[in-house]
């Protein structure tokens, strides 16, 4: 018999910091421990994160893993719609957009 998958929100496993480079949202995901990092590394792929932000992304998402820091950084082009000073979005610095990633649910199988 197989064990059912556990569903966890990212905010139970990690914290995020968000920044910008032009219209690209940069989100660092900082795992709370090695077990959380392992799960995030397996399940929080660039495709999963890109799907989370949907049509806001104008190019491919890129993930850079930093296992020595228990962190990964995602670069999401176009999400800031013109950059911090040029975007009509209320969240030009990406703080709420970073929380949007924390509320994502992933499965541990």
Automatic annotation (TrEMBL):
Pfam families: AtuA_ferredoxin. Residues 10-106 form the AtuA-like ferredoxin-fold domain. It comes from the Bacteria. InterPro entries: AtuA-like_ferredoxin_dom. This is AtuA-like ferredoxin-fold domain-containing protein.
């Amino acid at each position: 018999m197989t064990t059912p998958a556990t569903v966890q929100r990212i905010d139970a496993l990690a914290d995020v910091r968000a920044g910008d480079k032009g219209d690209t949202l940069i989100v660092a995901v900082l795992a709370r421990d090695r077990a959380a990092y392992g799960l995030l590394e397996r399940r929080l792929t660039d495709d999963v994160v890109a799907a989370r932000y949907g049509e806001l992304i104008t190019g491919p998402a890129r993930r850079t893993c930093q296992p020595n820091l228990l962190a990964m950084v995602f670069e999401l082009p176009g999400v800031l719609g013109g950059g911090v000073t040029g975007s009509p979005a209320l969240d030009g610095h990406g703080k709420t957009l970073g929380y949007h990633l924390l509320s994502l649910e992933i499965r541990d199988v």
